[in-house]
Amino acid sequence: MMSLPATAAGDDPLAWPPITRTQKPWTYWWWMGSAVDTNNIARSLARFQQAGLGGVHIIPIYGAKGWESNYISYLSPRWLDMLAFTVSEAGRLDMGVDMTTGTGWCLGGPEVTDEEANAIPVIKELEIPAGETITEKFDPKKLEALMAFSEMADGNKIDLLPKVHSDGSVDWTADGGTWRVFAVWQKPSGQRVKRAAPGGEGWMLNPFYAPAVSHYMLWFEEAFQSYTGPKPRALYQDSYEYRSSWAPDLFAQFERRRGYRLQDQLPALFGEAANPTRARVKSDYRETLSDMMIEEAMPVWVRWSHDHGFLVRYQAHGAPGNLLDLYALADVPETEMFHLDRDKLVSKFASSAGHVAGRTLVSSETGTWLAEHFTETLAEMKFLQDDLFLSGINHIFYHGCCYSPEEAGWPGWHFYASYEMNPANSIWRDTPALNVYAARCQSLLQSGRPDNDILLYWPIHDFWNNPAGQVMQFTVHGRVWLEDQPVGRAAKWLWEHGWQFDYISDRQLAGAEVASGLVKVHGGGYRAVVVPQCEFMPVATMSNLLRLAASGGTVIFDQHLPSDPPGLGKLEQRRAELQALLARAKAAPGLRVGNLETELASAKIAREPLLDHPGMMCVRRADDEGRIYFVANRGSNGFDGWLDVAAPARAIIILDSMTGATGVAESHASPAGGSSVFVQLAPGQSVFLRALADRKIEAPVWKYWKAAGDPVTLAGTWQIKFLEGGPELPASFATDRLASWTKASDTNAQRFAGAALYTLRFDAPPGGSGDWRLDLGQVCQSARVRLNGKDAGTLFTPPFRAVLSGLKARDNKLEVEVRNVCANRIRDLDQRGVKWKTFHDINFVNLDYRPFDASGWPLADSGLLGPVTLTPVAPVFHLTDSEHGAR
User: Which of 12, 258, 478, 693 has its CB 3.0 to 4.6 Å from that of 626, i.e. a possible disulfide?
Assistant: First the structure.
């Protein structure tokens, strides 16, 4: 099995770790029809590498119309040649390659048989009066259960499956009253591989059925036997979109795992009448499906990948199984945030599984439907990245870029749910600034180890114990499984009050031990296990919690202990066992029951007080020298003041991922036993804090700025020259009043996407000398700034500010190169009826999944809108010289 690189921050706490391909962001790379060639592959990879991407993830999908002769069948010898070239060329550029285990999504294709396809049960319910027989015939090869249930008070039941003849008739006559008969067999659900590429069409496989996965992987076994090129780093499986609720061996699996026959409870599982055991039977059914995925079906894919030299990346969300256990199967668990479905507490399921299992990387599908096509900005992507980093993610995959041959022209080929992270996008030239930001962040977020104090138990059986429905999926979209449950409320409370936590499952708790007072799992040690309010708990889990509490660990039950075991099998026996454990609970020295806040404080588990400030958030890691904080201001107001952190420190370093600047912060011990550090963060800004526990630092101090005067609006005549873009370069013009360039007299400016250079010559404002803060005001949408020929950085998030030095008394030259988004250019194409949406399958749709049409869009503001101001600033110090020396 391949290994993931270990990274460390190095000996110099002010230095950024070396940036490797793994620290850089990667991108999904859709191969439409797999109509790829070596020239365009090499050209694309070179552009990706120049923009700062670290790798690509190949996903073959449906093709572009008119290019059918260029399609390459998936896993054919020619397709494998293209794969080998891609991995080789990427390696030459120091980039990595991952690939989907199939085409489109989910796992499936031409090798999947009807029996192996994702399946749903067919239920035939009959009412048979006394003295009558079953006249209907059944296919004995498909029939899985045939059960008769008496409607009399005796509750008798008869297994009729042995009474089915080879011709499908049933040798049975009802007696003693009316009987209700349930016949059960399965059929393919109808779900085929979604957005399949040529050669990848067919059924999605059954994700609960291990033989289906084994047979599916033979397809890859045979293909890769003749493959001689370098292998991709990882195989990938997308989020769960199977329509499946049954498997050929479900009855046998259920009986083995739950200790009773599901066939005997068909009225509870499928019947309409009220049934007192329905919720318990359905809980057992849901747990069995979960077990089949976690213990049998998905491990087949993981083992095959490892045996053949691949890592695995896995999106478990959407599955009806325990997400923590499913994510933990992967070398790289992967989450996603989808348009407005951006819940950090959901994304923490992937990072928690990775942390508990000791994984180095946790990835994210990043930017799916972030906004409407051709309107997405670099700022929106930066803020999304910050949300993911705060969730514990440290390996960004943009969603993404579509392979597009040079011959396709502009705008080229496009995937319908993508952020448009591609070289045809007008914002592409400023993307390196975003990618450098992401790489610096990930260099520290991949360093050291996670540093959370609490393991928050997920009482999944409380959710499973529901009499309604059949399978229950844990999606990133509908989140009632978290938000409407006590675990979600506990997670939200912990998050908002600054306690650092990871979720943990029943299985993961079984492997926990106590050492030096810490609850140890494979990924590290935690100060406590917190159990949210719950009714149901497996006997084994309660036993494990008591074991931890008796061994010196801290286990906190919020408000009360559980009261009942889940499920139906051997219920009275298990109830007695659970009650015996509960009777012993009060004697366990580390077990606490009560108000969560009170018990956490009593256990002396420190929280992060910085979250008391509105909008301030953090995620924390640790290394041998102390703690590493990623701190983001996700509020609407700036922060300029002392920020308390839980880590005691002799020195704190500030590292700004946007600029690369580092320096020793103003800090001192806080009354609560941690540290106070002075921080200045504009809305949307983020920095790293390295809290060094025992090390003094003699190094440059971090520069804090304060206004030394009032802002001055820069006046004069701006010269605007269009540099590059399309469809045509508008004419240059001059203006004394900044406004959207779409208001220029040249109508070409209304359909232009690209870059324009704004140049202003000005004298230094009176009353100031030294340093100035430049504020560009409104920018649509990113800006490269130069003062007197000196680069002042690329600004792509509001507020668009930079501190400038070297202002001359006379004749300063300010240059601002501004790039807009492609919205106006696409609007023009659709208004003129240009046929550019020429793709098979879903073709190209908008956010509402309707045919995309930008012709009715209003013109999007573009360029530098200002006002542009200069404010004199001066360094500011908050500690005395003696206090600095004490550090």
Answer: 693
> Do 436 and 472 belong together in one domain?
no
* pLDDT at residue 697, rounded to an integer: 84
At residue 768, the pLDDT reads: 65
Q: What is the pLDDT of residue 155?
A: 85
Residue 268 identity (one-letter amino acid) = A
pTM metric for this prediction: 0.97
Provide the pairing of β-strand 332-337 with 363-366. Answer: parallel
φ and ψ of 178, to 5 deg: -80, 140
Q: Within a 10 A sphere around the Cβ of 885, how many other Cβ atoms? A: 9
| Model pLDDT, residue 5 | 45
Domain boundary among 702, 722, 743: 702
CB 578 within 8 A of CB 537: yes
Residue 843 lies in a domain: no
Q: Are residues 319 and 443 in the same domain?
A: yes
- Are residue 776 and residue 689 in the same domain, yes or no? no
Same domain for 214 and 138: no
Are residues 566 and 430 part of one domain?
Answer: no
Cα–Cα distances in angstroms (integers) from residue 630 to residues 192, 390, 679, 699, 869, in the given order: 42, 7, 13, 21, 30
Amino acid present at 614: P
Is the bond preceding 470 in cis, omega lying within 30 degrees of 0?
no
Note every long-range contact of 714-717, with CB atoms under 8 Å and residues 24 or more positions apart, other chains counting.
714/760, 714/762, 714/814, 714/868, 714/869, 714/870, 715/762, 716/760, 716/761, 716/762, 717/760
Q: Are residues 197 and 137 in the same domain?
A: no
Which residue carries 């695995």 as its tokens?
A: 312
- Parts of the chain with a pLDDT under 50: 1-3, 5-9, 881-882, 884-887
User: How confident is the model over 753-785, as pLDDT tens digits?
Assistant: 999 999 999 999 987 668 999 999 999 999 999
Domain that holds residue 494: 454-602
pLDDT at 273: 77
Could you say which of 602, 626, 653 is where a domain stops?
602
